[in-house]
What we know:
Elements: E1 7-11, E2 17-21, H1 25-54, H2 59-80, H3 86-90, E3 93-97, H4 105-113, H5 115-119, H6 125-133, H7 140-145, E4 147-151, H8 174-185, H9 192-199, H10 203-206, H11 210-225
Antiparallel strand pairs: 1-2, 3-4
Helix pairs in contact: 1-2, 2-4, 8-11, 9-11
Amino acid sequence: MAATDTIYEVETPEGIMLHMRVAGLTVRASAYLIDFCIRWSVNICVLIVVEAIFGDAGVGLSLIFLFLNEWFYPVLFEVFKNGVTPGKRTFKLRVVSGDGTPIGWQASIIRNFLLVVDFLPLFYGFGIVSALLDKRFRRLGDLAADTIVVYEKETSKTSLPNVEAEHPGIDLNINEQRALIAFGERHMMLSKSRKVELAEILDEVHDQKNEEAVLKVQGYSLALAGKGRDS
C-alpha cells in the first residue's frame, strides 16, 4: 500500500505546512466494500421489518428508505463524523477538502452523488481510470468536489529541532518564553517561509536573516525548554 500512496502537502494561511498521506485505490476499495455491506445489511433488515408490519403496503416506505440510505449514508457520516464512514474508520481513512479542511455538505453531496458517473461504463471504470491518472488518486467525484481521501494522522509527541541551545541575550517574560518554545516545537509544521518570517521578528536580538535567523531562534527555544547543550 505504501508504494502507491503519496504525501500531499498544503500550506495553511497561517503558514503551517500540512503533510497528508493520500490513500490509494486498494485501501479505498476495501473501505467502500465494508460500507456497502453495512448499508445493505441495514437495508435488508428494514425491508424484512417493514414487510412484516405493513405487508405489501410497506413497499413504498421500503423504497424510500432504500433510496435515502443509499445516497445519504456516506454524506451523513462524512459531514457529522469529520469525513469518516465506518469503512474508512476501519482503515484509518478520512475525506478532507483539497486545502486540508473538514468536508462540508456541498462537497460531500457532490462527491457521493457523482458515484453514478464514476461507476460508468462498468464496475467503476471511469472512477478507476481517473484515480490512476491523478497523483492524489481522486476519482471524478473527488475532482468535482475538490476532495481527497487521506490517512488519519497518528498522534505524535512534539519534537524540538536538532540545533545547539543558546540563551537569548535579553530578558523574556513567561509569554515570550512560551512563544519561543512553541516555535521550536512546531518546526516540523511550519513552512520554510513562515519560519523565516517569524524568526526575523527578533533580528534586533540575534542580528541574523533567513535560515541563520531560524537557527538562532530554534537555539533559543531549546535553551528555554531546558534541552540540548547550553552555550
